[in-house]
Amino acid sequence: MSDEEKKSLREQLEDNLEQQQDKNQTEQKKPKAKNKNNRVESQKSFSQKIEEFQNGEREENPWENVPKWKVFGGIIGIVLSLFFSIIFLLDGHLGLSGIFMMLPVILPLILTETGRHFLKTLSEELEELDQTQHKSTQSKPKRICSDCGWQNPQENSFCHDCGSKLGKSG
User: What's the DSSP call for residue 34?
Assistant: First the structure.
């Protein structure tokens, strides 16, 4: 390759790079906010979206970024799990049928980043709920009925079980 050819090729590449950068800058002009579920929300009203759609402008389709093999694999997995669950159900193996019915739900939760994030959030919320319940059910001083032995809260004057009057010391 001669020097002139190299120069012209370099200039073409630089022009293409500048055009690509200009295109990227125009696409990034419209700010998009992400909510807590990492979904992109547009700041446009419904009428603005309709206008843009009629003019041929469209927002980014989130499915365009998903590799085709993942979509195809997911569809094949669901079809196979339904097929095997029906086969085992007809054969009388309810347990195996149930396992195959749960696979399309369980596997994406384990294998995808979104699923793992969901499970992490769910476990944190359940742990927080468990701590709240544990705090509310911690043992408070009880008054024991001398007649039946029932453990009553301190504020009760009468036994919850037998109805007899509770003593002052409990």
Answer: E
Instruction: Look at residue 9 and tell me if it is in a domain.
Output: no
Count of structural domains within the chain: 1
The conformational region for residue 32 under phi > 0 = left, psi -120 to 50 = alpha, else beta, is beta
d(CA 84, CA 86): 5
111 within some domain:
yes
In this structure, which amino acid lies at residue 29?
Answer: K
Q: Who contacts 151 (Cβ-Cβ below 8 Å, separation ≥6)?
A: 142, 143, 144
On whether residue 135 sits in a domain, the answer given is: no
Q: What is the pLDDT of residues 97-141, one digit of tens each?
A: 888 888 888 888 787 888 888 889 999 999 988 888 777 656 678
Q: Which domain holds residue 100?
A: 68-118
Q: Is residue 95 part of a domain?
A: yes
Q: Record the pTM.
A: 0.35
